[in-house]
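testing teh design pipeline on a random one, pls ignore if ur not involved
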């Protein structure tokens, strides 16, 4: 059995060095976890480019873009091509490509608004009607038309004050 080192007065020497080594290891561990998390986050999230000028000068599209990047891009992709980070993991019908010449449900504005408001049956396209207000629904729908290289339908434009 090894004796604890003792001072002349009999007090046990504090094992400061090994305790602080443990503390250092814990701190390093947390730094490592934090750094790893940050790197993973950066790898997973594709930062969006700045808004192109035609969007930047159009309040409806600019508003729609903000909503799209925050709410829709995870599945639809930043540019609407259906290549968001979650797209490949979804159960049900694929996200589809908003830049394609043909949209699965067509591009009648009432239908598109209804899909965004109520979602589609049996798919991970949820309805946003309880999350987004009327103006936001119109703005994000308008942005979908922009991504699809389609003119923004008039009803979407008229519905919110610019
Ligand atoms: C969790 C993933 C997910 C999110 C988030 C999401 N969508 Fe979808 N979206 C889908 C899927 C999957 C489909 C295909 C649905 C189908 O085939 O029935 C779809 C279809 C659509 C369609 C119909 C496209 C077509 O080809 O007819 C539109 C429009 C649309 N989404 C807009 C949006 C908008 C706008 C948002 C954000 C407010 C959004 N989506 C958020 C998964 C998502």
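output:
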């Amino acid at each position: 059995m090894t004796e604890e080192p003792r001072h002349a007065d009999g007090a046990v020497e504090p094992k400061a060095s090994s305790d602080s080594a443990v503390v250092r290891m814990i701190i390093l561990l947390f730094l490592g976890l934090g750094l790893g998390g940050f790197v993973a986050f950066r790898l997973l999230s594709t930062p969006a480019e700045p808004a192109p000028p035609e969007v930047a000068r159009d309040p409806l599209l600019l508003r729609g873009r903000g909503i799209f990047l925050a709410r829709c891009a995870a599945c639809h992709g930043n540019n609407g091509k259906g290549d968001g980070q979650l797209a490949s993991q979804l159960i049900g019908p694929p996200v589809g490509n908003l830049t394609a010449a043909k949209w699965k449900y067509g591009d009648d504005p009432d239908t598109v608004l209804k899909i965004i408001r109520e979602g589609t049956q049996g798919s991970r396209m949820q309805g946003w009607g309880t999350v987004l207000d009327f103006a936001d629904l119109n703005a994000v729908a308008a942005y979908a038309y922009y991504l699809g290289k389609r003119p923004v339908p008039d009803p979407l434009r008229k519905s919110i004050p610019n």
